[in-house]
Design goal:
The protein is an alpha/beta fold. It contains 20 helices and 9 strands. Strands 1, 2, 3, 4, 5, 6, 7, 8 and 9 form a 9-stranded parallel beta sheet that branches. The protein is globular and about 60 Å long. The mean pLDDT is about 95. Bound molecules: iron/sulfur cluster (2 copies).
Length: about 475
């Protein structure tokens, strides 16, 4: 039985509720009165229920779909302005005891070279990332109690935070590791992680179990209830996501929104971020083998629907997507992108030879961070290297309240310009620097609060004199 507040996975992600929702959406996809009512509700920027979102997802009317897209753009602008937060993944180890059929790191993946970074190698990776200008990382590792136990992850986090190279620093480490115990989540919290990220892959239990035939990840309930354990353990910012293409997108989108509703209902705060990866080619993995692969136009609509259904949440896209797709979905709702990513273990400090391939998936967008930053300027965006909220204790409901009432705009805008200034001074090419200067002087005007604007101007001058790490 569906129960949004239940602690059981099969009750807060109730299969029958999803089927009923999809049937309701099919029946109502041409119901003008209902569609208008839902779109009008979405305009209030307070979000939509999973049922309402499902109706919009099924709607085939060109006119309504245009309105949905337009609304997603407006909501994105209202909550995030022109800011796009930059991050990079860091792969620690690709040993994995699971059998996920869509991932080359699975236990039997024989064409992959197994690697685990030593603390010394982590230092080299982090210095390479700092030298690009990155301040925010997402740690990735396969699940393997012997090769990458929690102690290894904790030690690595400590190493990463401890590296200060020239003006570089990693100021926020988000962690994407396998579902674990409440006790381990407490340890991650104490290590000072930013967001704990875990993708559900697919919410369809039967399909999930087939796609994860072996290993601890086979346990659907334990995996699906992971965010509850993480939040019980005191991690206030969690990031959810689906690997689109593993099951019907309408099913997974509905369940993803039910998961967000569940976290909000139980903990008073929904997901900090939602990621939208799509199945991608990798060693021995061909996306064409997956019957539910999602077309570009459908993918863009999914992003738009999530944006209007959960307006307060950050949305993340990786370098799995090409430049064109990234451009389109940035408008529709994405607020964080990775740049110059390596999905190999040790791939930043040293480029891998083809025969040593240790990558989890193919990177489609291969541009440098400098090229991406400059590209964002050209599109009218402000790349941000900000990590301020978690460091200022603005997490969980304190953060969400500020997002929901729009107060975050003041500090976000100021922080983005301060951190961009640091990037331009320390890492940018001449062209990027010139373009960035223009963006900063133009965007300063858009800090709504005059006192914060004044202070931001003062910080910018201090940064030019060599000082670093200011934040609101
Ligand atoms: Fe292991 Fe994660 Fe790959 Fe599954 S998706 S095989 S858990 S690394
Ligand atoms: Fe994110 Fe907070 Fe920085 Fe805004 S101010 S970019 S919400 S960390």
């Amino acid at each position: 039985m569906y129960n949004v507040k239940s602690s059981r996975a099969t009750e807060f992600i109730d299969h029958q509720e999803i089927l009923d929702t999809l049937e309701y959406a099919q029946k109502n996809k041409s119901n003008d009165e209902l569609l208008l009512q839902i779109i009008n509700k979405a305009k209030e920027c307070k979000g939509l229920s999973h049922r309402e979102a499902a109706v919009l997802m099924e709607c085939e009317s060109e006119e309504y779909n245009r309105q949905i897209e337009e609304l997603a753009k407006q909501i994105k602008e209202k909550f995030y302005g022109k800011r796009i937060v930059m991050f990079a993944p860091l792969y620690l180890s690709n040993y994995c005891v699971n059998g996920c059929v869509y991932c080359p790191y699975h236990l039997k993946g024989s064409s992959i070279r197994r690697k685990k970074l030593s603390q010394k190698e982590i230092c080299k990776e982090v210095i390479a990332l700092q030298d690009m200008g990155h301040k925010r990382l997402a740690l990735e590792t396969g699940e393997d109690p012997i090769n990458s136990p929690i102690e290894y992850v904790l030690e690595s986090i400590k190493t990463i935070y401890g590296i200060k190279h020239k003006n570089g620093a990693i100021r926020r480490v988000n962690v994407n590791i396998a579902a674990t115990s409440e006790e381990n989540y407490k340890k991650l919290k104490d290590a000072g992680i930013g967001t704990y990220i875990l993708f559900q892959e697919t919410y369809h239990k039967e399909n999930y179990q087939k796609l994860h035939p072996t290993g601890p990840k086979h346990d659907y309930d334990y995996h699906t209830e992971a965010m509850d354990r993480a939040m019980q353990a005191g991690i206030e910012d969690v990031g959810i996501g689906v690997l689109f293409g593993l099951h019907k997108h309408s099913y997974d989108l509905t369940a993803l929104l039910m998961h967000a509703e569940h976290l909000e209902a139980v903990f008073g705060v929904g997901p900090h971020t939602i990621s939208v990866p799509r199945i991608r080619a990798a060693a021995n993995i061909n996306p064409k083998d997956f019957e539910y692969a999602v077309r570009d136009d459908v993918f863009a609509k999914i992003v738009a629907i999530i944006r209007i259904a959960v307006p307060y949440t950050g949305m993340i896209i990786s370098t799995r997507e090409d430049e064109q797709t990234r451009k389109h979905v940035l408008d529709l709702g994405i607020s964080q992108i990775s740049g110059a990513s390596s999905t190999s273990v040790g791939g930043y400090a040293k480029k891998e030879r083809a025969e040593d391939n240790s990558a989890q998936f193919e990177v489609i967008d291969n541009r440098t961070l400098d090229e991406i930053v400059n590209w964002l300027f050209g599109l009218g965006y402000v790349p941000s290297f900000c990590t301020a909220c978690y460091r200022q204790g603005r997490t969980g409901d304190r953060f969400m309240t500020m997002v929901k009432n729009g107060q975050i705009a003041n500090i976000c805008q100021a922080n983005s310009l301060i951190t961009l200034r640091e990037y331009l001074d320390d890492y940018a090419s001449e062209t990027t620097k010139i373009n960035g200067e223009k963006v900063i002087s133009e965007q300063l005007k858009h800090i709504p609060n005059p006192k914060i604007r004044e202070k931001a101007e003062a910080y910018l001058q201090q940064i030019d004199k060599g000082e670093r790490d200011f934040r609101f």
